[in-house]
Amino acid sequence: MEQKPGQAQVRGRVLVVDDDLTVRDVVRRYLEGAGHQVRVAGDGEQALALFEQAAADLVVLDLMLPGIDGLEVCRRLRRHSAVPVVMLTALGEEEDRVAGLQLGADDYVTKPFSPRELVLRVNSVLRRLRVPAPPPRLDHLADGDLRLDPVARRARRGGAELALTTREFDLLAFLIAHPGEVYTRAKLLELVWGWDFGDAATVTVHVRRLREKIEPDPANPVRIATVWGVGYRYDPSPA
């Protein structure tokens, strides 16, 4: 895969989970061709066992698995790990895609898919993990009872630590650092995720998850405001 000048090569340990042998083999070959170390699993039980034996840097996870389905695999991974997850979903499974994103998956690719596109998605997620979205060059960010430490990548609300995924932290840090500014979902994908392509619904789901963690009443948000027809705006607490 062609690299941009000055762009660090992305290599990672990737766990590919799919019950289709052909898909596993094709995805493995393309990812290995891009320099990644790849392990494969044919079902959820095997995937969880392999991850417990040796953690991966990223999981490519099919949602339609025999036995333990992909959503449950994602749910169990999230109990003790913030590992990035790229889901593989069938064309008509919008509800499952949304459910996966709500569980903390980072992105999805719809079957049938181009293996080259999947490699691009994997590389993008890993690159962003290693070079996080620029939270502002400040030691701390604060708004009311929210406190963020971009260096330690820790967030607290009212003294209690918040369990945020990598993307959730980056998005919250970006929004707090740019109060009162409206951003479209496409612009947030570009500035926070580092993607020039992708489904804007990813942003919508991450905003929903953040609201559940930082808003007094998530159904009536006062911090992350929706600007209808445009995008989102962060409204800081009154001084």
Automatic annotation (TrEMBL):
<dbReference type="GO" id="GO:0005829">
    <property type="term" value="C:cytosol"/>
</dbReference>
<keyword id="KW-0804">Transcription</keyword>
<dbReference type="InterPro" id="IPR039420">
    <property type="entry name" value="WalR-like"/>
</dbReference>
<dbReference type="Pfam" id="PF00072">
    <property type="entry name" value="Response_reg"/>
</dbReference>
<dbReference type="GO" id="GO:0032993">
    <property type="term" value="C:protein-DNA complex"/>
</dbReference>
<dbReference type="Pfam" id="PF00486">
    <property type="entry name" value="Trans_reg_C"/>
</dbReference>
<feature type="modified residue" description="4-aspartylphosphate">
    <location>
        <position position="62"/>
    </location>
</feature>
<protein>
    <submittedName>
        <fullName>DNA-binding response OmpR family regulator</fullName>
    </submittedName>
</protein>
<keyword id="KW-0238">DNA-binding</keyword>
<dbReference type="InterPro" id="IPR001789">
    <property type="entry name" value="Sig_transdc_resp-reg_receiver"/>
</dbReference>
<keyword id="KW-0902">Two-component regulatory system</keyword>
<dbReference type="GO" id="GO:0006355">
    <property type="term" value="P:regulation of DNA-templated transcription"/>
</dbReference>
<dbReference type="InterPro" id="IPR016032">
    <property type="entry name" value="Sig_transdc_resp-reg_C-effctor"/>
</dbReference>
<dbReference type="GO" id="GO:0000976">
    <property type="term" value="F:transcription cis-regulatory region binding"/>
</dbReference>
<feature type="domain" description="OmpR/PhoB-type">
    <location>
        <begin position="138"/>
        <end position="236"/>
    </location>
</feature>
<dbReference type="GO" id="GO:0000156">
    <property type="term" value="F:phosphorelay response regulator activity"/>
</dbReference>
<keyword id="KW-0805">Transcription regulation</keyword>
<dbReference type="InterPro" id="IPR001867">
    <property type="entry name" value="OmpR/PhoB-type_DNA-bd"/>
</dbReference>
<dbReference type="InterPro" id="IPR011006">
    <property type="entry name" value="CheY-like_superfamily"/>
</dbReference>
<keyword id="KW-0597">Phosphoprotein</keyword>
<feature type="DNA-binding region" description="OmpR/PhoB-type">
    <location>
        <begin position="138"/>
        <end position="236"/>
    </location>
</feature>
<dbReference type="InterPro" id="IPR036388">
    <property type="entry name" value="WH-like_DNA-bd_sf"/>
</dbReference>
<feature type="domain" description="Response regulatory">
    <location>
        <begin position="13"/>
        <end position="126"/>
    </location>
</feature>
